[in-house]
Amino acid sequence: MGKNKLYWFVLLLSLAGLIWVIIHQIEFSWIPAGCLFHKVTGIACPACGSTRAAVTFLQGNYLEGLLINPLGIFTALLAVLLPVWVCIDLLLKKESFYLFFKKAERFICRKGVASIFILLVIVNWLWNISKNL
Amino acid sequence: MDAQRVDTFIMIYGKFFESHDLPAIRERLLSLDDSQASALSMIQYHDPTTSIIVSILAGSLGIDRFIIGDVGLGVGKLLTCGGFGIWTIVDWFLIQAATRDKNKQKLLSVLGGYY
Predict the structure, then answer these.
(1) Which of B55, B56, B81 is most worth mutating to test chain A (most A CB atoms within 10 A of its CB)?
(2) Chain A closest CA to B85's CA: distance in Å?
(3) Quick one: closest CA in A to B87, which residue?
(4) What does the pLDDT look like over B79-115, one tens digit per residue?
(5) pTM
(6) Nearest-CA distance from A59 to chain B in Å?
(7) pLDDT in tens, chain A (133 residues)
C-alpha cells in the first residue's frame, strides 16, 4: 500500500470510528453495520465491546471501561492519535508515519512478537466470550 | 528464458496475476537470464481463491489480510470488528485483486525492479 493511500485510509477509518462512537452515544442503533462475526455466529469477536469500553472510559469509569474490553481503549487511543500524526505528516510533507507503519509491520511479523500478539488476542477473545459481550 | 518456458509459467501461474499484467510479465520473463529464472520456481504465490474463501469465513478477524502479508491492515481490521462490518464486505470484492497485486510485488522483487 502506498503512502497516500495508507494516510487517507487511516483518516477514513479513524473518522468512521469516531462517528461510530458518536452514533452510539445518541443511540442510533438502526445503522445496519456492526460486527458481522457476532451477527453470524452469535459469538463475540476479539474486538466486540470496544465501543462500550471506549464510551465507558470517556464517561470517566476508567476501570469499568478497561474491564469491558481493554483492546477497545487501545483502539480508541489509536483512532485519536493516528489521524493527528497523519495530518502533521501531510502538512509538513513528511513520511514518518508511513516509515513507522512499515517498521511496525516487520516488527509484528517476528516470530516471538507474533506469538505474544496472537496469544494476547486469543486470551482477550476468550475473556470476551466468557463475558457474553 | 525461452518462449516455451515462459508460456508454461504463464499457463501455470497466470491465475495468480491480473490478466492485464500478463503481457508485461511475459515480456519481462522473455528477457530474463537463466540464473534469475531458477529463482522464479522458488516463489510461493498466494491463491486468490483461498483469499476470497478466508475473507468470507474469517474476514471480520482480518485473517484474509494477514494471509496475504498486509499485517498492518490485518491488525486494523481485527481491532475494529472488521471495519465495523463494512470493510469486511468491501474486502470480499477487493481481496482477490489485492492478492494478485501482492503476487506481482513478489515477482517484481525477484525480477529486481520494473517490467
Answers:
(1) B81
(2) 5
(3) A13
(4) 988 888 889 999 999 999 999 999 999 888 888 754 5
(5) 0.85
(6) 21
(7) 788 899 999 999 999 888 888 887 676 556 666 788 888 888 888 988 888 898 888 888 889 989 999 999 999 999 999 999 999 999 999 999 999 999 999 999 999 999 999 999 999 999 999 988 7
- Measure the CA–CA gap between A73 and B85, rounded to whole angstroms: 19
Q: Which residues of chain B make contact with A34, given a CB cutoff of 8 A? A: 81, 84-85
CA separation for the pair A24, A22 (Å, rounded):
5
CB contact under 8 A, B71 and A75: no
From the DSSP assignment, how many helices (H) and strands (E) are in chain A?
7, 0
Give residues with Cβ within 8 angstroms of B65, minimum separation 6.
Answer: B71, B73, B74, B77, B91, B95
State whether B61 and A45 contact (CB < 8 Å). yes
Q: Residue B58 carries which side chain, given as an amino acid letter?
A: A
Distance separating alpha carbons of residues B77 and B84, to the nearest angstrom: 9
CB A23 within 8 A of CB A118: no
d(CA A100, CA A117): 18
User: Is B59 close to A36, i.e. CB distance below 8 A?
Assistant: yes
Decide: A89 and A96 in contact? Cβ < 8 Å: yes
Instruction: Return the C-alpha cell found at A8.
Output: 487517507
In contact, A132 and A44? CB cutoff 8 Å: yes
Cα–chain center distance at A60? 19
Q: Which of A9, A35, A71 lies closest to B82 in CB terms?
A: A35
